[in-house]
Amino acid sequence: MSTADIVIICVPTPVYENHMPNLKPVIGATEGIAPYLKKGHLVILESTVNPGVSESIVLPILEEKSGLKGGVDFYLAHCPERINPGDKKWNVENINRVVGSFENVGLGMAAAFYESILTGSVKKMESLKEAEAVKVVENSFRDINIAFVNELARSFTKLDIDVVNVIDGAATKPFAFMAHYPGCGVGGHCIPVDPYYLIEYAKENGFNHDFLSLARRINTDMPAFTVEQLQDALNKKQLPLNGTEIAVLGVAYKANIDDCRESPSFEIIRILKEKGAKLRIYDPYVSHKSTVHSLEEALRDAKAVVIATPHDEFKKMTSQELVNYGVEVVMDGRNCLEKVLFNDPLLYIGIGR
After folding, report:
1. Which of 88, 85, 83, 43 is nearest to 63 (CA)?
2. Which residues are annotated as catalytic?
3. Which of 85, 9, 90 is nearest to 48 (CA)?
């Protein structure tokens, strides 16, 4: 820090079991840099936090341990990180960003810094809280829309309507519709976590987010719904869930990466074990969470397959291949297979299909 003009804090914000953020890494990093702050320094927090953290936690620590005054001797800004793991088009350099500060000098410095290293645009927010809220709103928006189509999937399952076909049909409208698709659950460190930040922060300040809370409940219930669908399908094949060999394919929260944070696969696995299923777990990107070493080993003599992560390797499976291994039921938790290619003698079940 002796030669730096800008210090960026970008540490994880893990969550406790009640889904609230564990700010110890942010606090630890802030306490670590505070004694080395000098006049003119710009501190930027990139970690995802709930609104109010920069002003109520980070700023006081910096002032107390440095003896300097924020907005006068040093400057504090927030620029929530944006990254989409596995996305080859959108990366750290070209994704647009937002910055916020509690005064104009720090805001201008932060905006100028990001504009100098990014090809994407930089939007100035009017406060630290606004910048913090942007990330929460982005991920709450996705959580709500996913919850909507997950609820449609559960409804359409009973109505004998293919929800994917319906969504694809709605997506032909060139305005006022954004396609989201159902699945066996929502994973990652952002979408299933950030809404709780806003829910709890608002509750502390006298407002209850009923809509956000309902979306969270719907999405949290999807692993259980997935297992229910699997059990119904096995029963149609006159197979019990208890004691049946089942291949669970995928523990990462999204395709072709090794990130398992908040993955719904773990809840699916927990429920299946609780119900007595004999599991073979395989993820080509997450060997330490797999119980077998290959897709072939996972499929051999399995009566059912649960696709929990749409890795490319799993999408290449064919109906005949599964039949040859003795598979009778395919529970496609990500709707990643061509449904028409996996019928008879297989029983294919998707989410809302």
Report:
1. 43
2. 190
3. 9
